[in-house]
Design brief:
326 residues; binds manganese (II) ion; inorganic pyrophosphatase (n-terminal core); alpha/beta; Diaminopimelate Epimerase, Chain A, domain 1; 6-stranded mixed beta sheet
């Protein structure tokens, strides 16, 4: 592919390369950044991989098996031949500190798969149909030099595929997703272990939070709309915080008959983070848009401010309206 060759050419001509990810990086973003860093190191490049806000300590423990030692500890203001951003739909998702460093690259590349994307680099590879950025990155690296891909790199790339496709279960999963996964399994990676770590493992305190909140699930519209709430008391009682709510909403959506699942988490006084997940033709993004948020058709979110009772009522009435519109 012509764009792949452009990228390979730019990398070939560069000596000092900086790699960037988005804030709150997920398995795909970190997997892409670390796989790319390791690959470029093997190609003899001097690579600086920047954590969001240059805060390496804040990176998620879950995927630390990638090996965070390749991530840059500090930055002394120097320039780079090339800046490469991964899994980045827009420049501001990088955060100000990193974007200022990104601009220090004489040339820039972005590799991304988000449907909402604003170009900000000299060369952009954007494949909306790719389940993950690592799916695209594998194709580029394989085209560049297959022999430089090793087990560690394959592990990072494979993890990105698993996390962004929900364990090959979301509709973004294509034959190419499985093809790339198949190629990566040839590197002898432990796919069962990776799947367990990123899809199944749950800390005991989060398990308690989950049980507590799920048992309070409320149903509306003959069981087609389900709502769970995470209060400050739930977090305090279980020693968790609003970051630990991730994925719990899926257990609610899994209930047969539920078409729209809603999770309301109290993040601070009179401030609520709301997530929507839907099935079939129910538009979750329309729910989030009512409150200034956004997202995908089946997964979206927003923030709502006010007294809990008011916030709750407003959300439920919007959801009922959107559910009946479908
Ligand atoms: Mn991604």
């Amino acid at each position: 592919m012509a764009t792949y060759n452009k990228i390979i050419d730019l990398i070939e001509k560069s000596k000092d390369i900086a790699v960037f990810m988005h804030a709150n990086p997920d398995g795909d973003c970190l997997g892409s950044a670390i796989a790319l860093t390791r690959f470029l190191n093997k190609k003899g490049k001097r690579v600086f991989c920047f954590a969001p806000d240059l805060n390496k300590a804040a990176l998620p423990v879950k995927v630390s098996f990638f090996g965070y030692e390749v991530i840059t500890d500090s930055y002394n203001g120097e320039r780079f031949d090339l800046s490469i951003g991964v899994d980045l739909g827009s420049a501001n998702l990088m955060g100000d500190a990193c974007f200022r460093i990104f601009l220090k690259g004489k040339k820039s590349i972005v590799i991304d798969h988000h449907s909402e994307h604003t170009d900000f680099a000299d060369v952009t590879v954007r494949e909306k149909s790719a389940a993950s950025t690592t799916q695209i990155l594998y194709k580029i690296l394989a085209e560049y030099d297959k022999s430089a891909i090793d087990e560690k790199i394959a592990e990072c790339l494979y993890t990105g595929l698993v996390t962004d496709s929900g364990g090959f279960s979301f509709s973004c999963t294509t034959s190419e997703t499985h093809f790339v996964a198949g190629e990566l399994l040839k590197y002898n990676i432990d796919c069962a272990e990776i799947n367990r770590i990123v899809m199944k493992d749950i800390p005991l305190n989060v398990f308690h939070l989950k049980n507590r909140v799920l048992s309070g699930m409320k149903l509306y519209e003959e069981g087609h709309i389900a709502v769970i709430c995470f209060t400050k008391e739930d977090f305090e009682a279980t020693g968790t915080n609003e970051k630990n709510t991730e994925g719990i909403i899926n257990s609610v959506l899994n209930v047969i008959g539920v078409e729209l699942a809603v999770s309301i988490s109290e993040t601070s006084d009179k401030c609520y983070k709301v997530s929507f997940r839907s099935k079939h033709n129910v538009d979750a993004s329309a729910c989030a848009k009512c409150f200034g948020g956004g997202g995908h058709f089946h997964a979206s979110g927003c923030r709502v401010y006010g007294y809990f009772e008011d916030v709750y009522d407003k959300i439920i009435s919007s959801c009922k309206e959107i559910y009946h519109y479908a």
